Amino acid sequence: MLDFLPKRLKDAVRHVNLRRLYELRVRAEKPLRANIDGAFVFLGETGVCFQREALFPTAEEIGEILFAASGYSVYSVENQLKNGFLTGAEGERIGIAGSFVYENGRVLSVRSVTSLCIRIPHEIFGCAEAVYSRCLVQGLCSLLLLAPPGEGKTTILRDLTRLVCERKGVNVLVSDERGELSAGDLGATADCMKFADKLTAFTAGIRAMRPDLIVTDELLPEDYAAVRRAIESGICVFASAHLKKFEDIPDKLFERYVFLDGLGRIGRILREDGVALA
Fold first, then answer.
1. Whether the Cβ atoms of residue 265 and residue 258 lie closer than 8 Å to each other
2. What is the domain extent for residue 104?
3. N or C: which end of the chain has fewer CB within 10 A?
4. 147 in helix, strand or coil?
5. Residues 56, 142: one domain?
6. Integer Cα distance of 68 and 63 in angstroms
7. Does 79 fall in a domain?
């Protein structure tokens, strides 16, 4: 994990328990920060420290991270970079900020990357038990996990997929657009399509893989048409979205809506009509 970090930053991270590390914020010539157990702290040569003792990553180190995380071939991940992220070998999602270059209304490249948001995937067995017991014991249904970024939606979705594979033995297709959802044990009956947009993955998957369930992460408004097609085809869908309110959901397609109440904590669960589940 995090093998793409330059030695100086890697040495600092070695002083942190990776099980508690959720995110690294690497900004050129600014203090290195880490999200540990949901709270941001500064990192220095010996781990957590005061801001004045923090490491200040350089622009060259940011370039080293991108080059190493791409497998030393930035060209091979060009499409990912155009979408503002890069995925490490062990599912680490590296968000990038810099100068986006456009041509004919489309992103041509990203230059002068100045900031990285490195999200570390976690596999927490059993974290989705509450969702399974309240929503899926009687049978499969379509459900949507809702919470702001960084509250554990992907971790819960991954564990829920594993539970369904183990306990129901259905064919599951995982649409992993960013290569993060599949960073762990998805279960013996799961198939995965990585780095394809949701419309492509759903369309090809329905035609070729005959799934009983499709699992995907981070729905955007334009993705709901693909979800609708799957549900109307008789396929259940598990998904997540960066939303906090039921009324903000663009299309009420799901049978259960699971809201997180803080990092990894299951809050209220609503039925398809918006009424709280008993």
1. no
2. 7-119
3. C
4. coil
5. no
6. 9
7. yes
Instruction: Clarify whether residues 75 and 157 are in a common domain.
Output: no
Tens-of-pLDDT digits for all 278 residues of the chain? 899 999 999 999 999 998 899 999 999 999 999 999 889 999 999 999 999 999 999 999 999 999 899 888 877 888 888 888 888 888 899 999 988 888 777 776 777 889 999 999 888 899 999 999 999 999 999 999 999 988 889 999 999 999 999 999 999 999 998 888 888 889 999 999 998 889 999 999 999 999 999 999 999 999 999 999 999 999 999 999 999 999 999 999 999 999 998 877 899 999 999 899 87
Which residues on adjacent β-strands are paired with residue 214?
173, 237
Dig out the tokens for 224 from the structure.
């709901």
Q: For residue 88, what are its two tokens?
A: 């490490």
Q: How many domains does the chain have?
A: 2
Q: Say which CATH number the domain at 165 has.
A: 3.40.50.300
